[in-house]
Predict the 3D structure of the following.
Amino acid sequence: MMKLLMILTVLPAILSGSYNARTVPSSVQDSLLAVEPTDIADYSARYQLESENEQTIFRHSTLADWYIVDTEKGTRKRLGEGLNLGQVRDAVMSPNGRYIAFAKDNNLYVHKLGFGTEIAVTKDANPDIINGVADWLYEEEFGITALFAWSPDSKKLAFVKLDERAVPAFAWQTYLGEERNPQYPAADTLRYPKAGCANAKASVCVYDMATKAIQTMQVNKDNEDIYLPRIRWQGDALMVLRVDRDQTRMELLRCNPQSTVSQLLYREESENYYMDYSLFDEYQWLRDGRFIVLSEKDGWRRAYLHDAQGSLIKALTPEKTDVTALYAVDESTQTLYYQAAPTPSTRQLYAVNIKKGEITQLTTGEGMHSARFAVDGKKMIECFQAFTTPNTYTLYTLKGTKMTKVEVLEDNADISEEWKANQLPEPQMLKIPNANGQELEAMFLSPLANSRSPLIIMHYSGPASQRVLNRWRKRFEYALVEAGYAVLIVDTRGSDCRGRAWRNETYMHLGIKEAEDLIAAANWAAKRDDIDGNRIALLGWSYGGYQTLMTMSQPNHPFKAGIAIAPVTDWRLYDTGYTERYMRRPQVNFRGYDKASLLPRAKDLTGNVLIIHGTADDNVHLQHTLQYINALVEADKQFEMQLYPDDNHFLRKGNNATHMHNRVLLFLQKNL
C-alpha cells in the first residue's frame, strides 16, 4: 500500500500545480492492484488533517483518532480534545482553511483552527436523531457517510438531519469477544427499515457560523416520506437532491439559506424505470449558472447542458453510449471531460466542446481508463488498467483536446513481471446468447490442462452491476483455475452500460430473467469441447447468493452444485432503499415479491448446495438464511451449511476469509 499512499499524498499538490511530479520515488514496495485514486485527509497551506487507529462502524464509516498538524509550528493536536470526545468521524476542513467540521455520537462540531477551540453545532442528538452523518440505510444504499457541506465562503455549514424514531429496530446476538459474558450472548440492535416499513424522516438544516443559528430548509413540506441523499453548495445557494420513496422521481432543489425557500430547478421521473441517484454526483456547474446533468431520459446515460433556470439547452454526448462519469469543465476552452463505455467491458476518456459540440476521444488502449482532474480541468492523473496491465498512473496537462504527458507516476512494472512469471491464463471475452437471442457479456478462464474441465460460473447478477470488465482483477477465480476448474463470469440482463432498457429488464420482478440467463450460459458452455457438461457449479455472494438459489430452483437447470454466500432469500426482509428502488413497495407489487421469494421455491431446489453466512451480518441478516433453511427442512431437502460467528457481510474477521475459500474448494472437490 506504500505506493498508493505516496501518490495520494502528493495528489492535491500535483493538481494545484505546486508539486514537481519528478520527485515521486520510483522504488516502492506494494501494488496498487485495482484501487482507484481516492481522496486523502483534508489539508490547507498551513494545516493538515491526519487520521489513525480507524474503527469500522458500517460499510464505509469509521471512527478514528484525527489529528491537526500545524506545519508552521510543527505541532500535532488531537481533534475533539477540547471537548474530550475521543475518536471522531468525517472530519472536513472549510474552504478558507480556518475551520474543521466533524461528527461524534450523531452531533456535529466545529474546530476553530486559529483559536484551537471547539463548539457544538448541534446538541439534540441521541441514537435516533442523527445530525450530519448517514444512518445505516443512507450509508449502505446511497454510498455516503458525511451528510454535511461547507458553503464556499465558509460562513455556513449545511447538514441533513435524520429522525429514525419510527424505523423498526432489528436485533441479533453476538457470542464472542472479551467484553462478552461467556455464559450469555449479548444483543446488538440497529434501526433497519425493511421493504414497506417506515424510513427515517429527513430534513436539511443550515448553521450560520456568525449567529450560531440553525434554519431548516423547506424541502419536505408536502411529503416527509422522501430521501435527501445529497447536498451541495453552488455559490450562495444550497443544492439538494430529493428522491421520492419509490425512487421513480429525482428532483434538484435550489435552496436560499436565508429565506429557507426552495425552488425546483430540475426534475427527472418515469413510471416504468427507477432513477439513479448517483447521477447527481456527476453534475457540473459553470460560472454563469449553467449546469450539466447526466440523465437516462433518452434511453442512454448522456450529458445535457441546462441554463441557470433549469431549461434544457442541448445534449452534449451521443446516443447509444453510456456516459459513466463527468470529470471537469475547462471554461477557458469550453471543454467538458468525461468517461464513457464504448463497449460494456471498457471505459475511455473523452472531451467535448460545449459550444461547438465536437467530441474527441482522448484515450485508446483497450481496458479501463479513469481519471482525477484539477478543478479547472487543466491537469489530470489518468489511471489505466486491463487484464494484463496493473494500474498505471500518468500525469497530463490539458488544453482543450490536447493532452501533454508530464510523467508516469507509477507503472507497477514489477507487479506486471511477477504476474507474467506465474503463467496463468488470460481471460477470454465472450458473448453468449440467452434464450431470447440476446447476447450476454461473459469472460472465460481455462485451466492450463487441456482436458474436459468442470466449470464454475461466477456471477453477481444484481441490477446495474458488472463483473465482466477488462480490468486488472486477480481474485478467487484464479485459485479455482489453479485447482483445475474452468471459470465463466457472466453478466445477466439488468447489468450496466448497455442502456436504460437493458438495465431495467428486471425491474419489478427480480430473479426471474437472471436465472434464465445463467441457465442459458451454462447450457452454452456445456457444449464446448473443453467443458464437462455434467460438472457445472454456480457461485454467488449476496445478490449472487440469492440468484444462485433462485436459478437452482428452476426446472431443468444444468447445475450439479451451487454455493450461496450471505444470500437474500425474501426481498421483504431486505432494506427499503435497495429493494424498493428495483421492486417498489410490497404493498403495491406483492405479486412481484411473491415470485421473487426463495421461500416458496425451496421445494423446487435441486443439486448440492452450500450456504454460507455470518451470524452478525448487519446487511443481509442471518434471518434470510434461517427462514430459507426452515423451508428446506419442511420440504425434506438436504443441504450443507457454514456459519461464521459474529462476522458481518464480508466475512473478513480473523481467519474467516481463508477458511471460507478453503471450504468452497472442498465442497467443489466433493461434488464435482
Remarks:
- The first helix runs from residue 2 to 16.
- The chain is about 15% helix and 35% strand.
- Confidence is low (pLDDT under 50) at residues 1-41.
- The first strand starts at residue 47 and ends at 56.
